[in-house]
Amino acid sequence: MADSDSRAGLRYATPEIVRFVDGLHARHDAALSAAFGAPAARGFPAIQLAPSEGRLLELLASLIQARRVVEIGTLTGYSAIRLARGLAPGGLLWTIEHEPAHAAEARARIAEAGLADRVEVVEGDALAALPTLAELGPFDLVFLDADKGRYDAYGRWAHANLREGGVLVADNVYFFGRLLDDDPDAAAMRRFHEEARDRFETACVATPDGLLLGVKRQG
Ligand SMILES: C[S@@+](CC[C@H](N)C(=O)[O-])C[C@H]1O[C@@H](n2cnc3c(N)ncnc32)[C@H](O)[C@@H]1O
Which ligand 1 atom is the nearest neighbour of the CA of 147? Predict the structure, then answer.
């Protein structure tokens, strides 16, 4: 049940509530702690998913018994570990990262999590890397979490390379509160929303910065 305040976007979450529920539902083991803590420890931007969002990705991958997954935006591998843990037996994840130092740290954290046989960190710019991955598809799930001004292009690639019924997940779709601004990146994000609505069954979940979920339509 939502009330009028929560329907209008008001949040009841406090840092204390979030810590409490994350401790219950999105608890970190040693490997997740290491990947989650790595950006701060290494002086990288701490822009990884929240624990609850990471856990949601893991459950989504597991729900659809994903065997082939692409992630755009690895950072230090936190969401990659979550996604890889949700894969069906024999499943594979390709995760794309253009910063060599981020990619190296992610490889180390993924190996430490015992997932190196299931996860390939593809180093390079996503727009250049995606065409090289296409032949490995069709994919069951594509997760977007990199440069926001290109979500429209990433969304088109996802549509072309997901199987029917495959799942698109995109973080930061409120564009840090700038979704309605008059600038090219915000316009690209709005285009992403509109094209996703046209091609997928969609829901935009009111996480702190918005999470778009799409299921690719048949036909
Ligand atoms: C928000 S972080 C990813 C966080 C990660 N998904 C997690 O939750 O653990 C975005 C990452 O995308 C990378 N990135 C940004 N633009 C990119 C591009 N065009 N191609 C590849 N990687 C890119 C950044 O270097 C950064 O590491």
Answer: 16
